[in-house]
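Lab manual, section 2.4: Encoding a predicted structure.

Procedure: take the sequence of the chain (91 residues), apply the prediction step described in section 2.3, and record the output as structure tokens. A sample record is shown.
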Amino acid sequence: MGKKLCLKNYMEDVVFSLLDGLIKEKNACACERCKYDIAAIALNNLPPKYVVTESGEVFAKTQLLNQQFRTNAVVEILKAIEIVRNNPHHC
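Recorded output:
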């Protein structure tokens, strides 16, 4: 039997890898609710990068090295930080 396949939006990994640093840089709220709100807003405005196989995952990771790809993610996260800062949902 083959390996179990899994469908994953690799863009989630990209956003979460950048999130903490950008939140700290912008001195934004770092509570769990705000982090997830920021991530959700950013991900809704970024193209998904779904992977199924190990080779697909390798391809997606090479895209992360592309400066424009990373820049697009940073821009959307920064926009999301401002949205959440102006409309927080935490206590």
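Check your result against the sample. DSSP finds four helices and two strands in the chain.
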